[in-house]
DNA sequence: TTCTATCAATCTATCAGTAGGTAGATATAT
DNA sequence: ATATATCTACCTACTGATAGATTGATAGAA
């Protein structure tokens, strides 16, 4: 196994654990155990917990944005663009019962190392930017302020729906929640 | 100072700390330091962390429901009922930059002691019940399914808006997010 | 009144377990 | 031989939790 592979496995494992239990609910030892190495080896690849958390968030954002696809290729229908984002949230709930990483980190934001805070903000800014960009290119005639409002409302609804569905232990709760729609 | 007072101060302090940093981001010693006692004294009033967390959540739910008021006296307008709940979320953000306690606990739900999980669920069920009850008594003609959907959507939007506004460090983000509205 | 017994509440001191993190030995592969 | 990656072993600080001493107030007996 190459170092890249190990780094990748650590990131994947940490991602899943943080999305389930939260940043402060996860330790180097637990991650190491799950990967099958010693915690010192995790420190070799990621010197501090903040560095690991930031790397997890950076990778998550990249994967998420890749799944959304280039904004130029976003659906022309505003609702379809919203649905594409919402479907990613739903998939993480249905497939693994996990939060959105940055929804989790956002809740814990006041107790996170600065580099993790920065990456969490970056996720929200990129995601909101993608939605606004999709709206601009689409067929929805609206002001920039209206576009921003709908982007924020879409993301807030998705994140909140994940929390409610996980807490109530019922995926149908997620499906019963409608996104705000363009007027 | 009576024992009741001390219990009350511990609950208040723990409430604020959990709503800022999360359940796993708070320790008995930090709570004790903030109150001005030793951690053993906190254990005297609340034997375990789970017991303390559950008591904090129970008190939070009671306070929240009291602020909403009896459902019989809820606004007859569905949107006004939604706004009453949303205003409570906004107040905790504006006045103390705090999450809704159960939004925070809901994010951490997979890493919480069972008694805290139960109280967190209770909060959501009571709050959703209040919204549905208000809709039933109000002037909005809709099916039970539609009422439930709007109640879930309202709560999800409020919780998500708190996360986004706190993460982006901008209260205007909260204010830019519109609640879903009755059709 | 004064002494004494009792009780709740807090304290000091400590426990075992775990946290993030580090030093240095060891293995592996080029 | 060197560089990379993992390991063992350990550190200090902190975690939730407990035992037992101490405090202070109260109530009844002298």
UniProtKB/TrEMBL annotation, chains A, B:
PROSITE patterns: HTH_TETR_2. It comes from the Bacteria. It comes from Roseovarius gaetbuli. Keywords: DNA-binding. GO terms for molecular function: DNA-binding transcription factor activity; transcription cis-regulatory region binding. Residues 4-64 form the HTH tetR-type domain. The keyword Kinase does not apply. Residues 27-46 bind DNA. SUPFAM superfamilies: Homeodomain-like, Tetracyclin repressor-like, C-terminal domain. This is Bacterial regulatory proteins, tetR family.
